[in-house]
Amino acid sequence: MGLLRIALKLFIGGYLIYTVMVFSLPFVKFKIYEAAAKKIITNDKDFSYDKIKEQLIKEATDLSIDLTMDNITIEDFEKHIKVSLKYNSQVFLPLTRKSWTFEHRLEENRPKKE
User: Fold this and answer.
1) At how many degrees (to 10) do helices 49-62 and 2-41 cross?
2) Spatial CB neighbours of 102, under 8 Å, sequence gap ≥ 6
């Protein structure tokens, strides 16, 4: 009886640790991607809009984030350029059939070169 109780506690503890790791992974990936994306967007080099999108998608691919050209919008204003991106990440838990979808958004302004 004592061994069964210890095994059950280990199983529940391991499942809780795994759940925390699975739920935190999309947010950790987003924070890493957010820092890289801000560097790309605010880069001093004068990239074209397509080049900015390609660089953002390349960074997302490195982090296994599903991002396409359709998820990235670039708006041209008088004094700055606004780059927005949005993507979803799903989390599945084992032993259950539940899944959660999290939406991640990033908006950054880039001043225009004169």
Assistant:
1) 160
2) 26, 27, 88, 89, 90, 91
**SS3 at position 83:** strand
Question: What percent of the chain is helix, strand and coil (3-state, nearest 5)?
Answer: 50, 25, 25
pLDDT tens digits, one per residue of 13-34: 999 999 999 999 999 999 999 9
pLDDT tens digits, one per residue of 56-100: 999 999 999 988 889 999 998 888 889 999 999 999 887 888 899
H or E, element range at 19: helix 2-41
Q: How far apart are CA 43 and CA 38, in angstroms?
A: 8
Other C-beta atoms lying within 10 Å of the C-beta of residue 56:
23
For the beta sheet containing 99-111, the strands, ordered from the edge strand earlier in sequence to the opposite edge, are 72-76, 80-92, 99-111
3-class SS of residue 112? coil
Which residues, listed in sequence order, are joined to residue 105 by a DSSP beta bridge?
86
